[in-house]
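Dear Dr. H.,

I hope your travels went smoothly. While you were away I took the liberty of generating a structure for the chain from your last submission, since the lab meeting agenda had it listed for discussion. I wanted you to have the full record in hand beforehand rather than looking at slides cold. The sequence, exactly as received, is reproduced here:
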Amino acid sequence: MKLKLLLICFFGTLFSMQAQTSVKPSILENSGIISGKITDKKTNEPLAYVNIVVKENDKVITGGITSDKGTFQIKNLALKDYTVEIQFIGYKTISKPAKLSEDNSINFNTIALEEDAVQLKGVEIVAERSTIEQKIDRKVINVGKDLTTAGATASEIMNNIPSVNVDQDGKLSLRGNENVRVLVDGRPSNIEASQLLKQIPSTSIKKIELITNPSAKYNPEGMSGIINIVLHKNANDGFNASVNTGLTFAQTPKISNSINMNYRTGKVNFFSTYGNNFGKRFNEGQISRLDDKSNQMFDIVNDNKSHLFKIGMDYYINDKNTISAYTNQNIFVGDGIVDVNIVNPDASQNLLLNSKYFSDNTDGTYNLVYKHLTKKEGETLDLEINHSIYSENQNADFRTTFNNPSIPTSSYTDNLDEKRRNSTINLDYVNPLNDKTKLELGAESRIVRTENNYITNNSSLSNSDYTYDLDIYSAYATFGQKFKKIGYQLGARFESYKVSAMLNGATAYKDDYFTVYPSASMTYSPTDKNQFQISFSRRVDRPSLDQTKPIREFSTPRVTSIGNPELDPQFTNSIELNYTKTITKGSFTTGLFVRSINNEINRILYPDPQNQDQQIMSFDNFDNNTAYGFEVSLNYKINSWWDIQPAIDFSSINQKGLVSVFNSTSNSFDLVSKEVTASAFNARFNSNFKATKSLRFLLFGFYRSGVDGVQFNGKEMYKIDAGGRYSFLKDKATLSFRFNDVFDTMKAGFDGQNPYPQVGQFTWESQSVYVGFNYIFGAGKNKSLQRKQRDNNTKQDGGGLF
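The corresponding predicted structure, in token form, is as follows:
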């Protein structure tokens, strides 16, 4: 009932405002008309979708865009003196005076625009080096060739991004917190983030946005913030494309390829992307139990094949209405072999477990967006419908061979079948009440349905049928004003959340609540080169399907990983203070943050009640925790041939949780509260050297400190990479190379005391050589387009993908 009332109020406000903005003043006062036709000076062809801006005393009054025939007509103008600007990307801007008096109509006839060669070159060629921008609500890393040289996939370049870390399993963390939400082109994915990043070719990425304290406009998931990966999608007339291929040399070669294509003609823009990754990946590790002197040695081989398809179109119905649609398809096939060799002081107890996993999954997304521009400058209405279907099937074989000949070999097989369906409808309305004030309203419906079936022939295990369903309905409002030096934005998101989990027909978990997520931010710019920003937001991290399903994630003779259906959501309140300074040769950014986390979700490890020599790895809600920290980054051009990008970040995290401790009196394990205050420090240094106009070299260094936890203490990690790029064929072709982890120092080590004293270390193919080739072709000219709002940003500039 509360949600219905919210939506009624929301739509009532929206339509009343729409009605108010459509009321026309007196015809006598606003009878002026400015018209004309825009053409290309060289070809004399009409130019469509050119921006026409009408100003009075440098203040924007109204405007429009040209039709397919290059014509425009601006009506309902007061009889005053104006300046008309004709703006078009790739062309020089033209300004013309327009005096409307008793003769209330001005026709400029034909205005010819001249190409701007400098702008055209910047549009067609990817930047040599990455740049960092600090915007009002996010940090934007514009991906240059130095980052795409870092590796073949998105996962491999993430460790080069300030405040972001990727562990050996591909799991992301932002400012030391793994509860981060990953979006691609502003939309969530059904695919686990660690797997998704390995499927996206690095050359397909246009920019990466770090939104550490999102406003109420955004879905509240993601405790430490949002990482939004924006893929390339150009707007050039004619046919344009780029082809990329890369080869990684490690224990065995791995190959990746991608092609991005775009064709723009008349009212229609077509775009498509295809990328793939192939190759075996090797991991090995060891875990030593200090109490019984036993060792577990792991040898892991994953042979993965992935394909990413994207195809879509924009259709420009007229100057005020646009429809965009796309489909995205991910196909993944993976074969994994895990050999676990357990060595005990008594050799007769040694055993070898050979596990084989055969997985294939598909993820299809279908997206439709309608964008409407009203007569009022800046007023927009967007409707987006998104539906995705994910399915995975995994067959596994387990075979255990004992060193003791009196114990027979045992084996069993099992099957996991999973299906997810996610349907989302968004409605967003933006109304600039005046040149300093903006109101934004929105509503969203999200329905998620999941099914998991587990079948095994192991008599000690049970078959299971598990479903996990979500119904989320929300509405938001934000109000902002910007004055000469100060701007602020206030907002709130109202959300109804319902979850129901069923295990074998019985209720495993159920929750239903209504929550408000407030947000506030303020900016202060004493000069053009200095900006301060302070912000507050409330966020939530809901348990994922993998964290809740009581079905094995993996299994070894000593450790079995399963989910916990009784997990509650965790909430955080976050405050940030950021400062950005533009200097002569670059920019400097720094920030402070404080977080308070309630019911933090974290990994736990406890003895198996059926066999205390074995351990269960799962998830649980910890007590209330706090964290604070800072980050500093610099983008500085020392001279014409050398630039650097150093960055550091520090976090102090206070955690409270439960651990299993052995009670010698009762000869059993008890759950005991434990509190830990841990510090995490990360440092990066990226340096680019220009040897010649065509040849560049780069050097990258990375350090991550050890971090203590409630369950385990992680060890420090560090590495150095070196590489270079050579451009030829008039900068349309680039050959890249990179030597990753030159000194082979990257290792993931840990130790812990509970439930058993143990130490461990895992290594992977961190030391490798990457060679890549990129070629850009096409003869199109860039056109300025009125694109749908989500094309470049989450909920702000554009297009949903995944």
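Two observations you may find useful: The helical segments are 2-21, 117-124, 145-148, 154-157, 193-199, 545-548. The chain has six helices and 44 strands.

With kind regards,
E. W.
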